Amino acid sequence: MPQPSPDLTDAYAELGRIKLSETDLDDVLARIARLAKRAIPGAEDVSVTLIRGEKAHTPAFTGELALKLDEWQYENERGPCLDAATTGSVMVVSDMAGESRWPRWARRAHAAGVLSSLSVGLPIQEAVVGALNLYGVRTGAFDGAVQVAQTFAGHAAIALANVHLYDSTATLAQQMQAAMESRAIIEQAKGIIIAERRCTADEAFAILAKVSQDSNRKLRDVAEALVQRASRPSGRR
Is residue 102 domain-shared with residue 15, that is, in the same domain? Predict the structure, then answer.
């Protein structure tokens, strides 16, 4: 089995060195595009397609030509990057001049100087699918690079899965922190009402809920206003 080229080995290593706490999904996608252009033979320009629901877009690309080639496909709702993303498979165009599956797009690509392409399905997360798109300026540029591109896409998918998991975990932690802070504020407000009205905790909560409903404000905001008011010196209330 042939060994990966130094550029490809370096690309794998760089994908593995991504610090999730210092980056986001867009940055990872941009790195993937740059590394693919550098490491995969024949790649003149590279892009990444993402599809969420029925909407496709290109969040990362190495040149304007790659972006245009993607957008021409989105306009016609047909093309190799769309098919690769939705099916998770590999779409190879060895010769744009003789391409019959997407003839309209292939003619535009050929006129722009792109003679071949390779799109590899790229799993992102459950609600999002994507593709890594490679564009070449010579016929058959990727005829011997399919396996290399698939292996690269596999490493890229791991990096994307990791950053998505990190983002999801960080978001959940933030939501839990916010919920805890809201609960603490509400408990303080209930304590103030209990002290002022000599009522039970349930009655205090019911009072807060009624003020929230009557004023069309969030319960947390009502509680926070009460706590702030109670915290002011008596002469400033």
Answer: yes
